[in-house]
Amino acid sequence: MAAVATVSSAGGILAMLHEPAEELKLHALASLNSVVHLFYPEISTSIPTIESLYEDEEFDQRQLAALVVSKVFYYLGELNDALLYALGAGPLFDVSEDSDYAHALLAKALDEYASFKTRASKATEEEENVDPRLEAIVERMLEKCVLDGKYQQAMGMAVECRRLDKLEEAIVRCDNIHGALSYCINLSHQYVSHREYRCEFFAVLLKYTRLCRIQIF
Fold first, then answer.
1. How large is the C-alpha radius of gyration of the chain?
2. Where exactly are the structural domains of the chain?
């Protein structure tokens, strides 16, 4: 039986990043993306080269370059940089991916977004705008939870992130509205302390208790 070939180094793949032909660079990035968990220390020495591809607006696969850099930073333990480049990867950063990398960055994205929304609610001066790429990731997470029928998870994320529009969407889609509203009451003890937000939050719940003629308070 023929022996299965194994790759012991990313050196050959990294060399292709310096080739003039764009298709070779694309092949190199795709290959690096599949082996980054094995060779991230070696690949890390070429981060500036891969970053330059991401920064090149004429390069066809900038988002793939960002994804590779994000994964390298993740394995190096640099979660801030990993998230920054994950944002640059756009839809290539798959919120449905079942991996430690995806789970860690999704959790960080959620924390970052929730922190921003909390700061914005307390700001007395003109607030900075949230990075639309970060918001897009959080919205994709929320939409996936609703589509998968994970309504309680979607409610928890929506409440934490102060996205009452997404909270309503999860409540409406849930097949047990009474249970959903009771769950939201429990969530309020942990995530709803700011006075103005508390008023907005309970206004949403009261809307559905009246519509459904149920008593939860």
1. 22
2. 12-76, 100-122+129-212
